[in-house]
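@channel sequence for tomorrow's demo:
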Amino acid sequence: MSQTTTTPASDDQQNTTQSHAPRPHRARAHPTRPGHVGTSGQNQLNPIFAREGEATDFPQNTLPDAESLPETAYQIVHDEAMLDGNSRLNLATFVGTWMDEQATRLYAETVDKNMVDKDEYPQTAAIETRCWKMLSKLWNAPDPDNSIGTSTIGSSEACMLGGLALKRRWQQAARAAGKSTERPNLVLSSAVQVCWEKFCNYWDVEPRYVPITDEHKVLDGYDLASYVDENTIGVVAIMGVTYTGMYEPVAQIAEALDRIQAETGLDIPIHVDGASGGMIAPFLQPELVWDFRLDRVASISTSAHKYGLVYPGLGWVIWRTIDDLPKDLIFDVTYLGGHMPSFALNFSRPGAQVLLQYYLFLRLGWDGYYKVQKASHDVAVFLAGEIGAMPAFDLWNDGTDIPVFAWQLAAGHTENWNLYHLSERLRLKGWLIPAYPMPDNLTDVVVQRIVVRNGLSLNLAESLMGDIREAVDYLDRLESPMPTEGMVSSFTH
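structure tokens (generated this afternoon):
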């Protein structure tokens, strides 16, 4: 246990703390959740932190019988959280792990604000509107003042709202034409983020997955006519596939849908899932046409706590025009003496992250975001180049879309180890780099992926390459195969 110094309890605190005897240890066979939880079912306090009259054993899965001092509770939680590892070395997650001192101070000052309570926190509501209007301009809305958007808990909720709008627009059009609304479907890549699987499950929409292949590594419009029909509510295009970081060519998908409309009359909109690329492409690939410059793009979502650089959790979703968001999905809520429009899955959610987003927009501006994203991009391209030059690996992509790339083991390189073994060796040095199978049709292909975020400097990247070369050298010198029992995918969306 960590021996961090804490403030001693006063005599008054000690005298008023209720005393109770420690509970006996209750062994359990297996932890119910992953993590370093021990086997006794108890949290045991280091004697150096114990106060007279306090319990030194706390049950892990039931509410304690009595109080403890705040310093004691803090120390227990602090020490358990310490076991999570170093977030700076976590190259599996897209989620941001660092903000500057001023942002942290602003976060602490505004953590009590409820974003949905716009009547009580009107200035936070006004700042939310400023943020999505900035994004609508960044994403080239034809008339930003006629667009509409909202903040969300994360990009998953943003995708849910975008999908709901697609479904409701399709239902309204079908009813107006006297057609059935019973069997809606949504066309997606087989490499889609799991939130879209949830959307289809929760809202009774048939998912139609277009498989990725070696020839078509992303959804690119190929054979799209085989998947769409009069019940298709929309097509999802991903700007930064979570498996590999590659962009799906939205303009190419739109062209395919244009041809389908010319041949069949089907007018099918696109939702762009820009969870990562929505905050990369405008700065690093401004010439790439993927956003509201395409008439067929009805809505775009992004994750502010990824390359938006905000602490989790915050997302944004914006519709091309007010008419693209069906009015019957917006509730006018009377709450605490005022009226406010509400379109969200959650009625109470933090407002602090919205203020953090506005802080970053003011602090960085376009030039600042370009510099931060370019730095991450440069590191990703460097790492991809170094890994691609190693005989053991073949790159799946090179990190030139979002700062993310994946690689696979070169065919015939070895029979003694695989990428799961390499992932384990790198974990010994603190690096979290997942290995996982690709989606349906390519499940026999295992890749590793690196997500380069703000904070992974070139110096750290050079250190990582040293550790990768050392691990590969160790594995290549094995004289017999490594065991494979119990290996599981460590894929992180």
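heads up for whoever presents: DSSP finds eleven helices and 15 strands in the chain.
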